[in-house]
Automatic annotation (TrEMBL):
It comes from the Bacteria. Keywords: DNA-binding, Transcription, Transcription regulation. The keyword DNA-binding applies. This is GntR family transcriptional regulator. The keyword Transcription regulation applies. PROSITE patterns: HTH_GNTR. Residues 16-85 form the HTH gntR-type domain. CDD domains: WHTH_GntR (cd07377).
Length: 90
């Protein structure tokens, strides 16, 4: 999956929190299959600077929310990965 610029997907003036919009955007890609199990996400810095145009802590909060929902797994030193479908259903 190509990680093109997604700044236009974020409504900075609306009532929804920016980190929640990012989490929802990534979750939609996971649930649609555009991001299959085992896929590696770009680094937090790349997601922040190049993809969403937000601060790194905002991306970090979005990733944490997806980890809480068991959609992502963070492996320190290796990256952030889409959790396998079997692990999601457990």
């Amino acid at each position: 999956m190509a990680w093109e610029d997604r700044r236009d997907r974020i409504d900075r003036d609306g009532p929804a929190l920016v980190w929640q919009q990012i989490a929802d955007d990534i979750a939609a890609d996971i649930e649609s299959g555009a991001l299959p199990s085992g896929s590696r996400l770009p680094s937090e810095q790349v997601l922040a600077d190049d993809v969403y145009g937000v601060s790194r802590p905002t991306v970090r909060r979005a990733i944490a929310a997806l980890v809480e929902r068991s959609l992502l797994t963070v492996v320190h030193g290796r990256g952030t990965f889409v959790t396998s479908r079997t692990a999601q259903s457990e």
